[in-house]
TrEMBL record:
Domain Globin residue range list: 19-156
Cofactors required: heme b; FAD
Catalytic activity as recorded in UniProt: 2 nitric oxide + NADPH + 2 O2 = 2 nitrate + NADP(+) + H(+); 2 nitric oxide + NADH + 2 O2 = 2 nitrate + NAD(+) + H(+)
Name of the protein described by the UniProt record: Flavohemoprotein
UniProt site (Influences the redox potential of the prosthetic heme and FAD groups): K102, E415
Function text: Is involved in NO detoxification in an aerobic process, termed nitric oxide dioxygenase (NOD) reaction that utilizes O(2) and NAD(P)H to convert NO to nitrate, which protects the bacterium from various noxious nitrogen compounds. Therefore, plays a central role in the inducible response to nitrosative stress.
Site feature Involved in heme-bound ligand stabilization and O-O bond activation, where: Y47
Family, per entry: Belongs to the globin family. Two-domain flavohemoproteins subfamily.
Matching CDD domains: FHb-globin (cd08922), flavohem_like_fad_nad_binding (cd06184)
Record keywords, A-Z: Detoxification, FAD, Flavoprotein, Heme, Iron, Metal-binding, NAD, NADP, Oxidoreductase, Oxygen transport, Transport
Cofactor note: Binds 1 heme b (iron(II)-protoporphyrin IX) group per subunit.
A single GO molecular function term of this UniProt record: oxygen binding
Amino acid sequence: MVNTDEQNNWQSVVKTVKKLDPKKLEIVKSTLPVVKEHGEAITKRFYQRLFEHHPELKNIFNMTHQITGHQPKALADAVYAAAANIEDMSPIMSALERIGQKHRSLNIKPEHYPIVGENLLGAIKEILGDAATDEIMNAWADAYDVISDVFIRMENQLYKNAETQSGGWAGFKDFVIDKKVDESDIITSFYLKPKDGKQLPVFIPGQYITVKVEIEQEKYTHLRQYSLSDRPGLDYYRISVKREDPIREGLPPGVVSTDLHKYFNEGDILPISSPAGDFYLDINSQEPVVLISGGVGLTPLTSMLNYIANEQPERKVYYIQAARNGNVHAFRTHVRNVSGQHPNVKSYFIYEKPTESDKEMHYFDKEGFITLEWLKEVLPSNKAQFYFCGPTMFMKVVNSILKEWGVPEQDIHYEFFGTFGNLEDEV
C-alpha cells in the first residue's frame, strides 16, 4: 500500500540522488534534442539488441507491445523525460512512482539495470553513429547511472513494503482460481484465493496485480497487469479480464487475455504479485467522487465503487460507464443494485450502439458519447474528485471535457499504463 511516508521517502531519494559531473551534465543537455529526435529509433534498436543478447528477458517484457510499437515509444519518453530532469526529478515524481510501481509488480531487480544500460547505450551509439563521440557516450553512461540509481532505491523500498506488510510476499505467489464468472460476451472475472490459505494483504481501491501466465503452447512466460475489480478486505482478489481480439489486421490477439479465457479454469493455479499501482482512491477523503469508465476500464472504478458503498456510506459517488452495448457491458446488474440499495450512489450507463434488446430493457441512460453538456445535467457541480479509466482516446476526451469545465488538475486522476508522460503527450 502506498502511503505518505513512502512518498516522502521517494522525494528524499530524488533530492539526494548522486549528481552528474557539471561538464557531463552540459553534454547531456546539449545532446537531448538529437536523442529526442531519434528516440523511437534508438529504443526500437535497444529492444532488438536486448532480446538478441538476453532472450530470457522476453519472460518479463510484453512482446505484444513490441509489435504495436507501444513499448519503444514509452521507453523513449521515459529516457528523455528522466534526462531532461536529471538535476531535479521532483517535477516528474508521479511518473517515477508509476514506473517504480510497475517494475516492482514485474519483479524487476537491480541486476537488470546494467543489462538495460549496456544495450541502451549501444543502441544510441548505433543510431547516432559518428555523432556519438566517446565524450558524449561517457556523459550519457553517467546519466544512465544516475537515473537507474533513483529507480533502484525507490524500488527497493517498494519491495520491502510489499514483503513486510501483513500477509505480504516477495515476487510471485501461487493463487487458486476459486471461481470463473462470465460478466459479458468479452469480460470474465477470476476470483483468486491464496493456495497457502494465508490472509491477503490490503490494497487501495484502484490498484492492480501482475499475473504470471505459463502456457504449454507458448515459449515464454507472460506477465500482465490487471486491476483488482472488487473492494479490499475480502477473502479473495478479483480480476475481470477482457478478451483482447486483434485491434487491426496483422496484429495477434491478446496472448494472456485469450489464454486466461480459453485455458484457465476453476481449481487452476495462477501466480500473482502483491498489489501495486499509483492510481487509487483517496480513502481518507469524504469529497464527492465521479467514476467515469470506458469498456473494461470499469475494473478499478468498480473496486472504488464497492469500497465507498461499504465503507463510506455518506460519501457521494457518481458511477458513469460507457460501453458499446449491453452485450459487452460488465457488472450492469451489480452496479444498478448498488445504486438502488445505497442512497449515496448514482449510476449512469452510456451505450454507443445499443441493441434493440438494450432499448427494450432500458439498459442505458444515454445513447452516444459522454459530453460536457450531459455531465452538467447529471452532476450537481464540478466540485468532486474525478477518476477515469478506459481506452486512450476515451480518456483524452474525458480529460479535455473536465479541463473545459474548469476541474482543477489536482482533482483529475486517471489510470494510464505504459507511459512516462500524460494524456496531453499522447497522440
